[in-house]
Write a structure and sequence with these properties.
Elements: E1 5-6, E2 20-25, E3 35-43, E4 58-64, E5 67-71, E6 74-76, E7 81-87, E8 93-105, E9 118-129, E10 146-150, E11 162-169, E12 172-173, E13 177-181, E14 188-191, E15 197-201, E16 206-220, E17 223-236
Parallel strand pairs: 1-8, 9-17
Antiparallel strand pairs: 2-3, 3-7, 4-5, 4-8, 6-7, 8-9, 10-11, 11-12, 11-15, 13-14, 13-16, 16-17
């Protein structure tokens, strides 16, 4: 289990942040006799590592049919990414990544460790593996404090067909905004309803990231405010 760490550079709220924490499989599908390889990135230009994470501060596991399998990570300094490998599952599954809580001053220009002036940040990411039209992993819950759930199966989607997602905080619907990103494409922003559900029309096939964030006044021993970001990575044909 990782421990919280204080870092000088951290994410800011979702719609102004420069970097996104995410997990990305090398391929959306993997045969059972092949290794499933993946990266965990802090990325600004999607899927390019911008800042190398500490593998001791990130947890990854494979989630399938309610069972979790912990996975190891190694730092790739050249790619500025954490790399991992797992035995490819039979059927669809989720890769789930969590970063250790990070702390920084609320005012980034200020140098302080006064808890009343500190922000705590958490980051969560999931990626769908082996999507299938009869699959169930796409809407599985990982139990992260902030979480995005797909309500429509990406394997059944085609370009320009709406996809519904739900944002949950501590397992409860969270109203707010979500956005969808894909390399070389315009970002798409949607408002959720009171049940935390938003509909996104993804205009082209490819790999997409749907993400959201939440922040509130919440104190712990080292901070006075809390912020979380979460995303779901998947491919559509």
């Amino acid at each position: 289990m990782f421990k919280p760490v204080a870092l000088a550079l951290l994410l800011v709220p979702l719609f102004t942040q420069a970097h996104t924490f995410l997990i990305k499989p090398d391929n959306a599908t993997a045969n059972p006799d092949e290794p499933l390889q993946f990266s965990v990135l802090m990325t600004e230009k999607l899927f390019q590592g911008e800042r190398l994470l500490d593998p001791e501060q990130v947890e990854v596991h494979l989630l399938q049919n309610g069972k979790t399998t912990p996975l190891n990570l190694e730092a790739d300094e050249t790619a500025k990414a954490l790399r991992g490998e797992a035995a490819a599952p039979t059927g669809d599954a989720l890769l789930v990544a969590r970063a250790a809580p990070r702390y920084r001053p609320i005012d980034k220009k200020e140098k302080t460790d006064d808890p009343a002036k500190m922000l705590r940040i958490e980051n969560f990411s999931k990626a769908l593996i082996n999507p299938a039209t009869d699959g169930v992993a796409y809407h599985a819950r990982s139990g992260d404090r902030l979480e995005l759930i797909a309500l429509d199966n990406p394997a059944s989607l085609s370009a320009s067909k709406p996809m519904r997602v739900q944002v949950l905080f501590e397992g409860e619907p969270l109203p707010g905004k979500v956005q969808a990103l894909s390399p070389g494409r315009e970002r798409i922003v949607a408002e959720t309803d009171a049940e935390g559900i938003a509909s996104l029309t993804l205009p082209t096939a490819g790999v997409w990231i749907v993400r959201s964030s939440h922040h509130r006044e919440e104190a712990d021993a080292r901070s006075a405010r809390y912020e979380a970001s979460a995303n779901l990575v998947f491919a559509i044909d």
